[in-house]
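Much of what follows relies on a compact textual record of a protein's fold. Each token is a code from a learned vocabulary of local backbone shapes. The record below shows the convention in full.
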Amino acid sequence: MSGYDPATFYRHSDLSGLDLSGQDLRGLNFEGADLRNAKLDDVIIDAGAMNLSRAGPEAQHLRDAFDCYFGDVDNRFIARLGLMGRLRKNALDSALLSAGVNADQVQQEIWKRGDSVRHACDGKFIRLAELSQIYNILTDRELYRSTQRDLSLAVWNQPVLEVARKTKRSFVHVTREEFYRLLDEAAEEVYRSNLAIMHAGIGNALRSAVRADKEMPKQIADLLSQLDGIILHSD
């Protein structure tokens, strides 16, 4: 493994049927790894290390609901989803310590009253958009960037985030796959909206030109018709 990052070396690898019983695998991440029929008795791993693996029933006791990485919140369409998220308890404490800030300082930078940062430290659900703000504040800090590689692999190279949809009675888990599908849909919605606005703006400008010049070539009228057709059939 010389020259390789141990945190990612086993991602998407074929480990099916291997006997890993009793081994200390802390610091390793098994996203996409085939662990079906592997022997995992008394194996020692970081919490969440096998959450995104391909594993059978024999590995279910090693998995939990935290199937997203903290970096997954770094997306400009997060706020459009209205979802909630919670970090594994104490995960944010490590990030704050590394960045040389405390929860109150980050809360002030968010410019919102409340205790969302402290709630995030305690592993409670808060708005996913606020978790995105917290992440961006930390990653924007020069001190944090210089020490990021020294942080615990269990915090930054393992899934530490659960995404959920809030209902009247509880929080309904949203898988990482579904979360990214919703992000793609939000991005597509914004794209189509911007496209319609752009077409409408061009159309209005051309119509104004036609009204100002009665001798405007027929091609302009044809272009307007095409634009209207694009807007109507953009879906």
In short: Confidence is low (pLDDT under 50) at residues 231-235. The longest helix spans residues 176-212.
